[in-house]
């Protein structure tokens, strides 16, 4: 028999062909093989030169290409054989190496080493017809398409043994290394033993599919970790089977990785880790906070894997693979099979980790907001009566306990911050306020906090999180101003404006509250007060409602605009940046002529701290009469729903189109807390009455909100 002269392994693909493998494990392994082979060839040359035989390779016609050919024959034709002593060896067996792999061939039953006779016996896995091709199984560890392409140069349609390799690195000290090694081994043994036990009971002829769940690629030596404070990298390659997208060994590594050194030093925590590892289902957890952080890390890991597939889409790949065989180049079809398989596993793993993460968030949140322990039952309590809150005594009592575990809270918060959408973080903050003020059972208040149904802990089946999803997308594309503004006007140089600063702050606040709930079951009232104070400051400095591209376009498409009472002009700036025609007026200070109560609410006569818009004009609500040809835009004209500023602007406007941005009677949390107005905090009740009498509502456009506000953009047309 002769050896093949050419191969379809990715090792021999052109750069254009390799482009189709972007994001896959196969590409990573192939590039490593190319680098390793070239380095090995140069090492051989170097050793021969040291032996005084520097021309030996050339004399014998051994070029790099021939060396790579020899290695390729070895990779593609060697097989794994079980020795009599139970050890495995790899060998090239002439004639036997012509057998191809089939996923239909029973695992572990198609061939066997006969050591006594020095040969390999092949067993027919079914009755073959004369001339029909006979197949063997390459075994569990070689059957995924990424490995078949890397080592053998082919792939299998509808491969039942698809896997995704995932390499993780964690920094370990002596204790963490010990715990991690023990937990990984226990988890693998429990999982594989369960599979084997069920196989023994089933009586199946074929051996069970036993994936290589993990492989330690680099383990630091114990002596290198003896010194206090010493650490080193621990590198583990996990196999993620399509049949088990979140294998228990991967879960247990994520759990150990999310434990702090002080937590690992606790014997009870270590015992919980091993109990978790020995659970064959992988469902026994260490703690709610640890599980939250571990699932968050896994969700983000698989999100990164999915983001790495930049060529094509799942739908496009499926459509290409559905074409007749002769319509898709062979190597492209191989790339499609590998890419679609790995993407499919990553997508399943992401979906599973997301689903379990969301459930854990729901459980943590529901446990916290349904808490009754510590609620003041004294109906005559002056402290509770004056604040409108019956939790103050318990919150003060729990404060030292929360402060004692702040490192654990901080670690959990960092882990979960980027794993939740923006809407979920705001939902957490709003639920904290609603629970604090005792309105969870208020059907006019609590449902308004629902912004992310997967993590919503109460009964509701609808919400609109489109504005927050838009901000998430802007943040992902880095077009939300989070990198600072080139033109800061008279703000701080490089200052982050809306929506970037809003997105960053809400995610930080929400993660901090949720982490406290996960670790302690309650939050520090000081932190919630700080969130409220910082939100109020940012709201005043930037804007009361957060502009999204959808909202800006909805306004801009109305034609020329005039904004009265535009504050710092952030919305006018963003509208102008998108090419819309906007004239903006600002009243620098509160004016008693409009019975404006704003000064009392924020203890200042100054309306705005900074101007974000270059072309800001000075003028009050009477300026509206000069622009009947423009759509009038009013945003939060009556601070805290008090005053006549909005009413006066409306009385001076004779145009046909009105835009109101802010809270409204049916878009507000109402009187959930002392000082909150039933008709909202943006427009006086009289202004809303006048709008309703003169205009018809045409459209409601969602905008993003600061905690405990429910503003929207509303487009109105004059009644005929």
User: What amount of the residues lies in strands?
Assistant: 5-15%
Q: Strand order across the biggest sheet?
A: 13-12-11-14-15-18-16
**Structural class, please?**
alpha/beta
- Outline the biggest β-sheet: 7 strands, mixed
Would you give an account of this structure?
The protein has 720 residues and is α/β, with parallel strands linked by helices. The protein is built from 24 helices and 18 strands. The protein has a 7-stranded mixed beta sheet. Strands 7-9-8 form a 3-stranded antiparallel beta sheet. The protein is elongated.
Write a concise keyword list for the protein shown above.
720 residues; alpha/beta; 7-stranded mixed sheet; 3-stranded antiparallel sheet
